[in-house]
Design a protein that fits this description.
The protein is α/β, with parallel strands linked by helices and 91 residues long. It has helices spanning 19-33, 53-59, 63-73, and strands at residues 6-11, 37-40, 77-81. The longest helix is centred in the first third of the chain and has 15 residues, at 19-33. 9% of the residues are buried.
């Protein structure tokens, strides 16, 4: 089967057993069955500070932000399984 696209998949929550993590797992399997080349990552592998332009000005872009950006740009698509927050979009 030919690869139709390279898709990066991750969950917005890194909590063990999180629904969004399980959803990302199911999505990964389904995308692979459809012929996509899927990379599944954990945001826990890319710890990042809260957005702080003063910190960025003083120390540059955090190394993990650069690494994550490279992961994203190396793929054709991105699937984020994000948790709901109080019935709405998470912060």
């Amino acid at each position: 089967m030919a690869v139709i696209a390279r898709i990066l998949v991750f969950a917005g929550s890194i909590r063990t057993g999180a629904f969004s993590g399980r959803t990302a797992d199911v999505a990964q399997k389904e995308l692979a069955m459809q012929g996509a080349e899927v990379t599944r990552i954990s945001l826990g592998d890319y710890p990042l500070p809260i957005m702080d332009e003063d910190l960025e000005k003083d120390k540059g872009i955090p190394e993990n932000a650069v690494k994550l950006g490279h992961q994203i740009s190396a793929h054709d698509g991105l699937l984020i399984a994000t948790p709901e927050y109080n019935g709405s979009i998470p912060p």
